[in-house]
Design brief:
The complex is a heterodimer of chains A (255) and B (128).
Chain A: H1 5-29, E1 48-53, H2 63-71, E2 87-91, H3 92-95, E3 112-116, H4 124-128, E4 134-136, E5 142-144, H5 154-158, E6 165-166, E7 190-191, H6 197-200, H7 207-211, E8 217-221, H8 228-235, E9 238-239, E10 251-254
Parallel strand pairs in A: 1-10
Antiparallel strand pairs in A: 1-8, 2-3, 4-5, 6-7, 9-10
Chain B: H1 4-18, H2 20-28, H3 50-71, E1 75-77, E2 83-85, H4 88-95, H5 103-109, H6 116-119
Classes of the chains: A alpha+beta (255), B mainly alpha (128).
């Protein structure tokens, strides 16, 4: 078959048109949304969680906060714009906005609730982190690798619990007594509660749980049916913060 | 080539100036000196051999960090079978507690500024 210049250009042009049309057809033909659903819960041997008994939590007591912020070199910056918090208090209404009404009784109205990172089953902070600095461990702890954090603060926007703080300034001058066995953070990284993973590695329970004199905090493995925490969850009615968002928070509250 | 002398003289002066750092160090007797490190420790041997540590401590520390932070594996078994807790603050700095006389000496010599100390706490009394 003889092909002239005109014929060659026609065939070539049609070929290129075909390649260009393909992605357009793809878009129209099958609508596939980005994966956003949670993974199906599979059998895990360990899932660490915490129960906060707000009935036992004494107003004005800051033992858990002091203990946590002491061991983890959390700076005490008074300015709320710059403040860093791993565990803190907030009024019941602000902590549980979807379980609040005008006639809240039982002494809960306006009383402080202990808040910390919820170590979610389906953590939104992990999903948005562009560098995988925030990740979820197999035992459920949502961990941060500060070495990798680039300070983009996507995680802060994603976290519905306000559990993350950004170091707007060098935190060291604001740490009263530096614990030399645990690193501080540096300007430009985000930080949050790590469920005391460095203490768990040594066989210790989290510092906040250890420091609470009123037994308001309990910590353990909820996949173990005979654990203390499962006993507490069995015998008490517990609520979680904003469960409707589907993040699967793992801090349970007895109110 | 009427300006030959001026050109050659200029070239010699130029070469002298551009090689100034080299012969200045030779004349001053500071050529090719190695930084002298001080270690205050009872231990005779680091985690691995001195040669290995000198060349690869940065990779080792990176591996330790990834292993501890991301995999929760915290024990390092050295080539000689000894086990160590993988921790810059709690293992390395127990022997190398004199950062100013150890870490900084070499790092300054080769002009690198590792960011370890932005977060990891330097033992007291050794801050530069």
């Amino acid at each position: 078959m003889k092909i002239d210049r005109r014929g060659f250009l026609k065939i070539g042009g049609l070929g290129i048109l075909g390649v260009a049309v393909k992605p357009v057809i793809d878009v129209v033909s099958k609508v596939k949304l980005a994966e956003a659903s949670a993974k199906k819960r599979v059998l895990v041997e360990k899932r660490l969680a915490m129960v906060v008994n707000l009935k036992n939590c004494k107003e004005g007591c800051t033992d858990c906060i002091n203990a946590c912020h002491g061991v983890h070199n959390v700076p005490d910056i008074a300015n709320p714009k710059d403040e860093i918090k791993w565990i803190w208090t907030e009024s019941y209404e602000k902590a549980f906005p979807d379980q609040e009404h005008r006639f809240i009784g039982g002494g809960m109205k306006g009383s402080p609730a202990i808040l910390l990172c919820n170590h979610c089953d389906n953590p939104s902070c992990v999903r948005v982190c562009p560098t995988k600095a925030t990740f979820k461990r197999e035992d459920g702890i949502v961990m941060m690798d500060y070495h990798r954090c680039i300070g983009c603060r996507f995680c802060m926007a994603a976290c519905p619990y306000g559990s993350r703080s950004f170091n707007w300034r060098d935190p060291r001058p604001f740490i009263k007594k530096i614990n030399p066995n645990f690193p501080t953070r540096t300007k430009g990284v985000v930080e949050k509660c790590n469920f005391c993973e460095e203490r768990l590695a040594k066989g210790l329970i989290p510092a906040c749980v250890e420091s609470c004199k009123n037994k308001a905090l309990a910590f353990g493995n909820v996949e173990e049916p005979n654990s203390e925490i499962r006993g507490i969850l069995r015998s008490n009615y517990t609520i979680r913060r904003k469960p409707g968002l589907g993040t699967g928070p793992q801090i349970y509250y007895i109110v | 080539m009427n300006n030959r002398i001026i050109i050659i003289a200029g070239l010699i002066i130029f070469l002298c100036l551009i090689t100034f750092p080299i012969w200045y160090n030779v004349v001053g007797g500071k050529a090719a000196y190695a930084p002298e490190l001080k270690i205050v420790s009872e231990e005779k041997q680091c985690v691995e051999s001195t040669k290995y540590m000198r060349a690869k401590h940065m990779q080792l520390l990176n591996d330790w960090r990834n292993s501890v932070v991301r995999e929760d594996k915290r024990t390092y078994t050295a080539l000689d079978g000894k086990k160590y807790d993988m921790s810059l603050s709690n293992t390395c700095l127990k022997c190398h507690s004199n950062k100013a006389d150890f870490c900084d000496k070499c790092h300054n010599y080769v002009e690198v500024t590792p960011t370890c100390w932005n977060c990891h706490v330097v033992p007291e009394g050794n801050k530069l």
